[in-house]
Q: What sequence folds into this?
């Protein structure tokens, strides 16, 4: 059960990186994309970070329980 959590955690961390890079790239470029999507990308980043932390904590908990 814990191995899928590990890989889901890695996928969530990758999603955080993608959202962060898109958000920073849009901020650096400016323009219409940034005005439309800057807040959305940062909210997505925070959501992905929350999911990644929960998944990794669940993985660590299950590993400590011998699961």
A:
């Amino acid at each position: 059960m814990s191995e899928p959590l590990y890989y889901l955690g890695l996928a969530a961390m990758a999603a955080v990186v993608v959202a962060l890079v898109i958000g920073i790239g849009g901020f650096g470029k400016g323009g219409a994309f940034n005005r439309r999507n800057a807040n959305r990308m940062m909210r997505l980043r925070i959501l992905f970070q929350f999911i990644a932390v929960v998944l990794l904590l669940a993985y660590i908990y299950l590993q400590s329980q011998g699961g």
About this structure: The chain has two helices and no strands. The mean pLDDT is 89. Residues 31-64 form the longest helix (34 residues). The CA atoms of residues 35 and 47 lie 20 Å apart.
